[in-house]
From TrEMBL, chains A, B:
Coiled coil: none annotated. This is Magnesium transporter MgtE. Residues 144-206, 207-265 form the CBS domain. Gene3D superfamilies: CBS-domain (3.10.580.10), MgtE N-terminal domain-like (1.25.60.10), SLC41 divalent cation transporters, integral membrane domain (1.10.357.20). Its main location: membrane. PANTHER family: MAGNESIUM TRANSPORTER MGTE. NCBIfam families: mgtE. GO terms for cellular component: plasma membrane. It is a multi-pass membrane protein. InterPro entries: CBS_dom, CBS_dom_sf, Mg_transptr_MgtE_intracell_dom, MgtE_N_sf, MgtE_transporter, SLC41_membr_dom, SLC41_membr_dom_sf.
């Protein structure tokens, strides 16, 4: 299905290019307008530069704003496309765009360019941009659109419906109408469904839902996504601390947030940014190399530890054989524990950090004891040495316990420090688990050496 | 914010429990109805069993259907709640529920119970259930609701608007109206926005968008989610191969799909199911233990390999020190490669499998050469042995190359076999990378032993 769609976009690019090359500007516009909004962005980005030079001259500002609202490429690249046009044209397009997308572009621009475009806009537009770009990334404020419909309590159904019709073209979507008091404080929500199914002369009080679920502009986007996902909302209002309505966040932006957060967590666990798996081999190398080399250098600590215990290995070379097993199993236990903790602390949990730690401790001890007993049993039957079996089993159990707790505590501490636990690097935790496991293993083995050397 | 909300739900449970215990049934209903739909589910599940025994008797079927539509617990547990009522009441609630949720519950029931409920429903309802539960899990068909509004081409704006108003109560959401021909084949879409902003007497032809994006009932839910996310749709129509309209999928279900798929990929990479991080310690142990023990047993292969090379280690004990480093780095390279490949093949890529493999080969060779040279350099300056440096560097490079390619090929093969690459277990791939790395390492080291033993 995806492939078909790419094919369709390519065909549209070709056909529209032909139109412009043959001077059929009107046919070009008719065909272009018939595209879905998302496709308009894809097709425009697919044009050759010399075709775009003609295309933006043929299109009106509103159509171009739709194009720029739907370009799913890096903001930097969108800004480049914008700069293919004269500054005033660019400013017009920015003003026609949805406020959240416009603010994103301003945030991607060098300050020189920000100044250029703002100088070409009316003062009130510049004010609005200013009020939007002040929100930190990954907060509700940075996601919010200012195109929504707010009415005063006391309005009649028919008047609100008339306003809905008038604003339907501009707003991202009118599914809810927001009811505010004289100070623009959010007091309730009316659904379009209720507007349509109630008498024209009724005042909206009786169909206003005053149990409004809203978010604050500074709230983390992850928490906002959770609320929207739980409640199955199409959009959610954003207020400041004084309950003044600032904007709305629509579910399509929430879909992007959920995807972005998931990619972030997955990238952390894999020690590589997976947000664009269609990178060129060189881009792919650049993303993988830093962590791979950093982990390699950190891994040398494990080597140095084993070197330090060389006398022990000389006495019992069999010990060397269990190094990868014990380090690897500690790493596996640490990875499991890390993944659970990142999900727990990152996505909101009913438990306190203390409760979670006690639960993890119980689980880790249980896992450690079972795995340690299993390995000790296997080693006893395989190598016939009770001393070796006890040393190896004990080392494994201790390693699993330490690795699990470490991998649990790191994300908990980050969350307390208001850092997203998703940044924790899985293989880095594994590497530290390796160090600890090797230390624990040789400390135990060296201490018990008399129990199995020469047996 | 999340905590506040949990607090609110607890308060509502308490207050509503008090109402019922004091016999204030009317006040109970008023308070309960004022809750958001999502909260109705949470609150009902929060009641003690003896309170639910009274609550379902006080509530009408429609309210209970909303409760059951919004229970965000395991389908098994929802079925248990349903069985607290007499079969006929249960059947009534099922019929009032949205078709997709109803079908999910039927799929979770033992066949005895399916027969009980179906026997209490009119034949046509039973037919509809039958037609819905035939779709495989994780397909568009399994997600789709059958509550949508379809009109024939040629209808007038005012007539369609009248139908919208009439059906607004039943349908999940009316944002689009679907236009079908005489054989119920989907021919276009009209947005509610356009209905509201065009004259009553106009026929809908002129505002019908005939470039419909739809999905097939058998399409993978991941692909459906991708389309909805790309196009920013609120819902998407589902058809069969003959373009007959079967149902719609709304964006709130897509939000759940994206979350579910992300959890699946993350769980695979961590070798533990992270879908419910608030498990009790025992549940947590049960989820972690199988993979931890399986990986432990498989890790014994690494131990056996090292044991087999014991004569080599006896000659050069320093070799043991590099085992965790080489195995660990191969594992890290494999994890990075696996994560990229799972995202690439799982989420649709523009590249063919062959192109992707060539790209991975170029990247892997580059990474292998750089990491190998770095390690060889470090070992040369640290240990002063050119032979050891060459052996260790070469072994690392070969291990990285093999691990990267293996971790890339496994998900590619799964995708070709129509198995979701997300099932690949990260630590399992790491364990296999360990085996290969140890084999490669000792094969190279044993072959070059004369170059560094005794130096």
């Amino acid at each position: 299905m995806e492939l078909d769609h790419d094919q369709q976009v390519k065909q549209a690019v070709q056909s529209l290019t032909d139109r412009l090359e043959n001077g059929q500007d009107d046919e070009f516009m008719t065909e272009f307008t018939a595209l879905h909004d998302f496709e308009k962005g894809q097709v425009y980005a697919g044009f050759a530069e010399n075709i775009r030079e003609v295309a933006w001259r043929v299109m009106d500002d509103e159509t171009l704003a739709t194009v720029f609202d739907n370009l799913e490429i890096d903001p930097d690249e969108i800004v480049d496309l914008l700069q293919e046009m004269p500054p005033q044209k660019g400013a017009n397009i920015l003003m026609e765009m949805f406020a959240d997308n416009e603010a994103d572009l301003f945030q991607a621009m060098p300050s020189r360019l920000v100044a250029t475009y703002l100088a070409l806009m009316p003062n009130e537009e510049a004010q609005e941009i200013h009020s939007l770009i002040k929100y930190e990334e990954q907060t509700a404020g940075s996601l919010m659109a200012t195109e929504y419909l707010a009415v005063q309590a006391g309005a009649k159904v028919k008047d609100v419906l008339a306003q809905v019709k008038k604003q339907a073209e501009e707003a991202e979507s009118i599914i809810y109408v927001y009811v505010v008091d004289g100070q623009n404080r959010l007091v309730g929500i009316v659904s379009l469904r209720d507007l349509l199914t109630h008498p024209d002369e009724m005042t909206i009080e009786s169909i206003t839902n005053t149990r409004v679920i809203s978010v604050k502009a500074g709230d983390d986007q992850k928490d906002v996504a959770q609320v929207v996902a739980d409640y199955n909302f199409f959009s959610i209002p954003v207020t400041n601390d004084g309950q003044h309505l600032l904007g709305i966040i629509t579910v399509d932006d929430i879909v992007d947030v959920i995807d972005e957060e998931a990619v972030e967590e997955y990238s952390g666990l894999a020690a590589v940014d997976v947000s664009d798996p269609d990178d060129s081999p060189w881009q792919s190398v650049l993303k993988r190399l830093p962590w791979l080399l950093a982990l390699l250098v950190l891994g040398l600590v494990s080597t140095a530890l084993v070197v330090a215990f060389e006398p022990t290995i000389r006495q019992a070379p069999i010990l060397a054989a269990f190094i990868p097993l014990i380090a690897g199993t500690a790493g596996n236990a640490g990875t499991q524990s890390l993944a659970l903790a990142v999900r727990r602390f990152g996505n909101g949990s009913d438990r306190s950090v203390g409760q979670a730690l006690v639960a993890e401790l119980i689980a880790a001890v249980t896992l450690a004891v079972i795995a340690g007993l299993l390995l000790a049993g296997i080693v006893y039957f395989w190598q016939g040495s009770r001393g070796l079996a006890v040393a190896v089993g004990l080392a494994l159990a201790a390693s699993i316990l330490v690795a699990s707790l470490l991998a649990h505590i790191v994300p908990a501490v980050l969350e307390k420090m208001k850092v997203d636990p998703a940044v924790v690097n899985g293989p880095l935790v594994q590497t530290v688990c390796d160090w600890l496991a090797i230390l624990i293993y040789f400390a135990i083995a060296a201490g018990m050496l008399d129990g199995f050397v020469g047996k």
